[in-house]
Amino acid sequence: MSKKDNLRNLGFLAGGVVLLLFVPPTFSIYVRSFFMFMMMYVILSLSWNIISGYTGYINFGHVIFYGVGSYATAILVVDYGWHWIPTLFAAAVAGFIFAIVLGYPVLRLKGPYFAIAMLGASEGIRVIAINWHSLTHGADGINFPNIENSWETYHAMLVVMVLTIIVAYWVGHSRFGIRLNAIREDEVAAESLGVNTTFYKLAAFGLSAIFPAMAGGIQGYKVLYIEPESEFFILITIYMKLFAMFGGKGTVIGPILGAALLYSVQEYTWIRFPTAHLITFGIFIILVARFMPRGLMGYAIDKGWARKGMVH
């Protein structure tokens, strides 16, 4: 990517952040919440992209780290009396450690075996959360103190989103990212050239877990209640994957655009077609997959609207 393309992309991203930073305080709680959850899905999609977009290891259990983060925040706030802001750092550490422990065995699997193992792990963690009542409060869930926090959580999610974009941008423009791409293209060849594939896969897996864990903590504090069924809901992982692939996986700009646009479409269809919004949303996804299989960024390159280097 040329220096000019770098500056252009950074300018677009910085402009978007500035607009979000100065969302008028007079906006309703609904509008703030809409933007907050849109930013949450940008975080989730970018974090999923770090492991799945760059290494090619398709992760169907990324919601694990989101759930671990939400529970770390809830337990520390409700059971131990912490202020909610420091719990986000604890959530990030918990997500990272959990990813390293889980990733060491499952990253030895490849292709569909890895995907199935992560799907099974997410279901296993959900069952553990339901039954480990002394820690997670079980199926009863955890209630936060009832306060209006839409402005606090909005700004916290914005900060985490900016951090995620910075890290994703670094991954996409560093030797670390080049090695992850080498693993995606041909892992055996990468190993033969001296790339420590186990280390780089595990590092990417741990890095990708930090941000959904923090986002999960913010989301839990925002809605003031968490329980296993919602925090380890497989549909959240599916959304991450869809949003990243819609924008263009393996890029930085793609998951951002994909999450922002598709979350907006999802919210609009939910408002206009409350009894059939999932069907409407699904038809939209099918049409996109049919006519833009490489996502928005790939389509833009095919049409000559963007150079390949510009989308990273």
Structural description of this entry:
The chain has 312 residues and is mainly alpha-helical. The protein has one domain. 76% of the residues lie in helices and 1% in strands. It has 15 helices and two strands. Strands 1-2 form a two-stranded antiparallel ribbon. Helix 3 (63-79) packs across helix 10, helix 8 (175-185) packs across helix 10 and helix 12 crosses helix 13. The chain is globular and about 55 Å long. The protein starts with a helix and ends in a 10-residue tail after the last helix. The model has no long low-confidence stretch (mean pLDDT 86).
Produce the secondary structure layout.
Layout: H1 3-21, H2 29-55, H3 63-79, H4 84-106, H5 112-131, H6 133-136, E1 142-143, H7 150-172, H8 175-185, H9 187-192, H10 197-223, E2 225-226, H11 228-231, H12 234-247, H13 253-272, H14 277-291, H15 295-302
Antiparallel strand pairs: 1-2
Helix pairs in contact: 2-7, 2-8, 2-10, 2-12, 2-13, 3-4, 3-10, 4-10, 7-10, 8-10, 12-13, 12-15, 13-14
Structural class: mainly alpha
Specify the biggest β-sheet.
2 strands, antiparallel
| Helix residue percentage | over 70%
Quote the distance from N terminus to C terminus. Answer: 8 Å
Descriptive tags:
15 helices; 312 residues
How is this structure best summarized?
This protein is mainly alpha-helical. Helix content is 76%, strand content 1%.
